[in-house]
Amino acid sequence: MRTYQTEYQRSVAQPDVFWAEQASRIPWFTPPRVVLNHDDQGHARWYGDGELNTCYVALDHHVETGRGDQPAIFWDSPVTDARRTLSYRELRDQVAVFAGALAGLGVEKGDRVVIYMPMVPEALIAMYACARLGAVHSVVFGGFAARELAVRIDDAEPKVIVAASCGVEVDKVLPYKPIIDQALELSAHQPSACVILQREQLRAEMGVIDHDWQALIESAAPVDCVSVKGTDPLYILYTSGTTGKPKGVMRDHGGHAVALHYSMEHIYGMAPGEVFFSASDIGWVVGHSYIVYAPLIRGCTTVVYEGKPVRTPDASAFWRVIEEYQVRAFFTAPTAFRAIKKEDPDGQGLQKHDISCLRTLFLAGERLDPPTFHWLDDLLDVPVIDHWWQTETGWPIAANLQGLDPQPVKPGSATFPVPGFDVQVLDTQGEPATPDEQGSVVIRQPMPPGCLTGIWRDPQRFHSAYMAAYPGYYLTGDGGYFDADGYLFIMGRTDDVINVAGHRLSTGEMEEVVGSHAAVAECAVVGIQNSLKGQVPVGLVIPKDGFDGDTDALERELIALVREKIGAIASLKQVLVVSRLPKTRSGKILRKLLRSIADGEEFGIPSTIDDPSSLQDVQEAMVEHQVGAADRARQV
Ligand code: COA
Ligand code: AMP
Question: Mean pLDDT over residues 54-62, rounded?
Fold first, then answer.
């Protein structure tokens, strides 16, 4: 019997042999002969001389081998009171026609297409249509504001934008078209066309470069899959870094398909024909990997859910979906269950549904905090599995492999490194940390297939962000430790990235927006603990000398500014005007200290602090604004 240990050892001792075997499990047009190569920075390149197409692997291949009538997508939209099922054949045919429509607009292999859509089947159709043409999609999350969209348009330089007329949230319809129009006013790059899916909840007014989705497909002819190299780009997905400019994480066709197939079988324990439900959004990496691509690559059915964990209509929504579609594995973020627990602490909603079909619950996006783990573990009869990953890796780095050799669960731990990931914890000197000693979590090269191949058009940033800190290792940006049994505990970011309701955001970027206000001299934005969202940002600002306006009004303006420039998902609800900020003598703001004060943790006053009395200002402002306090009171 294969054990986790033997599989893992094989994967790190002979990665090329290991991943050659896995590559043979997906259909290639030309199987790769060279499995592993390295670029000039020493970063792994997988399957460079193989030829395939991800759309073929996920759709056409299954239709050709007898899965044509099996549902590929169950779309469930409580916010619009709609449902739709698409079989593999229907999905393949609709993708082929939409690919023909994009080709008609001039989209060719290597061209970029920005997709700005909510959780509708057409979003998946657009993504697969790009893959079919060898074009590179870049999906932008619907909660981002026009400026964020513009930054991505300027970086990716898409030939075409594909969007919907609106998104639908719990109690509101969000017009998307004005956001696109505004983004195009802000961006230097202009696409040659926009395709708009008109939704009945709100039809968009069309402009000169706009094409109606429906009209376009009525006149389009289906096209076949274009053959691409294993290393050719499938998509760019922007993620928050430590600066205002997001990083365009690039993913390839070959490594991605092989890795996702491996993960579905070994991590998620999914067999072809079974139903997989990932309650995320296509705008995030979880959505890309485990709503759009992995389930279909494996021949499973994916549930596309346009709703929330609560309020659509209540806290039993997930249980309803699991029962209705006979879901075998369910995946969401811990924050979603904290929201459910808040509304339904005793899990009453579960009593209304028979979820005996469910085999495993998976959680990721942030650490599965032990209280949420225990709540779920008590409530459910299935394993509750935390697993750790990030946009850059595209699939889990550490997990409890349900399809290989399940291990006892330790609350707070993501269990063991996944085969292919040589995970190490290094101390500040770059030496291996001892068991239970926290350090910087890194991955020794070569990274396995499926991980980022670079940052779009910015090799220098790729090097400085990930490769420079510890030569030969990829820097994850997370801190953590291994315990004496080899279980990995990921404890949080070591940089300015924060995790708000499972959404990755940059406090550095928020600082840039707050600092751009005419009345602001200096500012800091820090992520503080929040019992629902995990973390939320809080801003502290020093007004410019001579500012004699209303500080309450300034605080409100800054909150509105961040919402306008970044989007509602930034969730910045508190900004505090202070007269001083704690700094080192060299002028660096002591952000960690600010976090500790807000979180009510004990802290020592660093010897490098310039003016210890500045702490009093900050503490007083936090007490006055009840920063963190209301939340702490809720947790008691
Ligand atoms: N399009 C437009 N706006 C969006 C949006 C979208 N796709 N998603 C969220 N927003 C808006 C919300 O409407 C809200 O606006 P508001 O300030 O006007 O109310 C704001 O962004 C903040 O959203 P969110 O942080 O999601 O808070 P919430 O209170 O609406 O919901 C949760 C809280 C926990 C229920 C929700 O965040 C959730 O389901 N999280 C799971 C996240 C997840 O799956 N992440 C993927 C990683 S696995
Ligand atoms: P994203 O790129 O949006 O997927 O966010 C990745 C970051 O989320 C990681 O670097 C971690 O900080 C955090 N994260 C995701 N999953 C986990 C987990 N299971 N445990 C701890 N942190 C996690």
Answer: 99
Q: What is the mean pLDDT of the chain?
A: 95
Q: How far apart are CA 289 and CA 481, in angstroms?
A: 27
Domains of the chain as residue ranges with CATH? 2-307+387-480 (3.40.50.12780), 502-635 (3.30.300.30)
The pLDDT of residue 54 is above 50: yes
CA distance 176 to 232: 31
Contact assessment for residue 147 and residue 566, using Cβ atoms and an 8 Å cutoff: yes
What are the beta bridge partners of residue 116?
163
Token pair of 188, please?
A: 């230097």
Residues with CB under 6 A from ligand 1: 142-143, 167, 169, 174, 279-281, 284, 286, 308-310, 332-333, 335-336, 339, 364-365, 501-502, 568-569, 571
- Supply the Cα-derived Rg of the chain in whole angstroms: 24
What pLDDT is stored for residue 600 in this prediction?
Answer: 87
First to last CA, the chain: 47
* Residue 244, pLDDT score: 76
Q: pLDDT tens across 457-494, in order?
A: 999 999 999 999 999 999 999 999 999 999 999 999 99
Which residue owns the Cα nearest ligand 2 atom 15?
365
Q: Strand, coil or helix: what is 278?
A: strand
Report residue 466 as tokens.
Answer: 């990930």
Cβ-based neighbour number of residue 315 at 10 Å: 23
73: its two tokens: 């997508």
Q: What is the pLDDT of residue 636?
A: 33
pLDDT band for 602, please (50, 70, 90 cuts): confident
Q: How confident is the model at residue 633 (pLDDT cuts 50, 70, 90)?
A: low
**Residue 474 CB–ligand 2 contact under 6 Å:** no
Distances (CA, A) of 326 to 28, 83, 329: 31, 15, 9
Q: What percent of the chain has pLDDT over 70?
A: 99
631, two tokens: 């939340």
- Ligand 2 centroid–CA 446 distance in Å is 21
How far apart, in whole angstroms, are the C-alpha atoms of residue 336 and residue 338? 5
Segment holding 497, helix H or strand E: strand 497-500
Q: What pTM value is reported for the model?
A: 0.96
CA atoms within 13 A on the CB side of 317: 26
DSSP reduced 3-state for 513: helix
